[in-house]
C-alpha cells in the first residue's frame, strides 16, 4: 500500500502523523511511505531521518494526498484540504466528526473511508488511541489553568497552590476519566484543593483509592455542578462521549455566579465542548474572556508538546496502520473488531451512529456499507 504523511496545517499544530520509527515499520512491511518535506521538523524529526527510515520525500501536500492509498494525519482535515478527498481514499486521523458537520458532509460526498483515532476501541472498552493525547491534555489543562489565573493573563491573581497563610485554589474537574485523572494528578501536585465530578461510582472509588484524601469526588448532577462550579477558581471540562458531541454541563448562568478572573479549560472543545460559552481557540490566541471568566479552549492542546505527543501517538496508532496497510480496510475490519469501531464514514455512508445522530444523518451499519 502507498501511505501518505502530509504536514499538519492547523494553526500551531506541530505534531506529525507518523514518526521515522513508524515509517521504518511500514517500509519493512513492504509498503511505500510518502512524506511531505518538513512534516516532522517541529516534532524534532528532520527529513534525513525519514529518508534513512525508507520514506520517499515529496515537495507538496497535493502530491502526498494524490499518490497515497491511505493518508495518516494527526488532526482533522481543514477546508483547504477538502480538495484532496476522493473516492476510496483511506483517511486515518483524529476526526471528531460530531463537532464538524462540514467535514462530515465532505467525507460523505467524496466517499472517503474515514477511520477516526478517537473511536477505535480495545478489549477493555477503552479508547487506546485517544488515551495518550488525553493524558497529555489532562496534565496540560491544570498547568495552563494555573497560568491563566495569573493577573497579567486576565486571571484573578491567585497562586493555585497558595503558600502558608493564604488560600489554596479550588479546582473542579468535570469527568473522572483519563483526562480528568491526569488533570487531578497535576492539580494535586500543584497544591490545589481538587474536586472531581463523575456519574460512575466505580470510577470515583478508583480515584479516591489512588489519590486518597487529596481529592473529593461527587456525583455529577445539576445541584452538585452548580454548587461546585460557582465556587471554583479553575474548572476543567473533561467529559467524553465516544464519537458524539459532549454534553453541556456548565452554562452561562454558572459563569455569571463565579468570581471574576476565574478560569475554565474545556478539554472537550474538539467534541463541541461541555461549557456553553466555549469556542475553539488556537495556541496563537489561546484565551478569551466572557462573563468575566478566562476561557482556554485550544482544540489541539498536545500540539504544544509535539515531541512527546508524536511519539506517544505513534506508539498507539501504528499497530492499526500496519494492519490496514497489510489487509486493506475491509480485511482489517473483518480481522479486528476494534478497527471496525474506528470507521466513521465509508462509501458515502455514515457508519458511526453517534455522528449520524449529531448531524441528523441516515445511519448505515458498517456491514451493510461494506
Q: Assign the CATH topology of the largest domain.
A: Rossmann fold
Based on CA atoms alone, the radius of gyration comes out at 21 Å
- Provide the helix percentage: 25-40%
In the predicted model, the low-confidence regions spanning at least 5 consecutive residues are none
Assign the CATH class of the largest domain: Alpha Beta
- Arithmetic mean pLDDT: 96
Give the CATH superfamily of the largest domain: NAD(P)-binding Rossmann-like Domain
Which sequence of SSEs, written as H and E, runs from N to C?
EHEHEHEEHEHEHEHEHEHEEEHHEEHH
Number of β-strand runs: 15
Shape: globular
What spatial order of strands do you see in the largest sheet? 3-2-1-4-5-6-14-15
Strand fraction equals 15-25%
**Structural class estimated from helices and strands:** alpha/beta
CATH architecture of the largest domain: 3-Layer(aba) Sandwich
| Biggest sheet layout | 8 strands, mixed
* Total discrete domains: 2
Distance between the termini: 20 Å
Count of alpha/pi helices: 13
Describe the protein in words:
With 370 residues, this protein is α/β, with parallel strands linked by helices. The protein has helices at 20-28, 47-52, 61-67, 101-109, 131-148, 178-189, 201-211, 222-230, 252-257, 306-335, 337-342, 353-359, 366-369, and strands spanning 2-5, 32-36, 56-58, 70-72, 90-93, 113-116, 170-174, 193-198, 215-219, 234-237, 263-266, 287-290, 293-296, 343-346, 349-350. It has two domains: 2-112 and 305-369, NAD(P)-binding Rossmann-like Domain (Rossmann fold, 3-Layer(aba) Sandwich); 144-304, 3-Layer(aba) Sandwich (Rossmann fold). The chain is built from 13 helices and 15 strands. The protein has an eight-stranded mixed sheet with strand order 3-2-1-4-5-6-14-15, sandwiched between helices. Strands 9-8-7-10-11-13-12 form a seven-stranded mixed sheet, with helices on both faces.
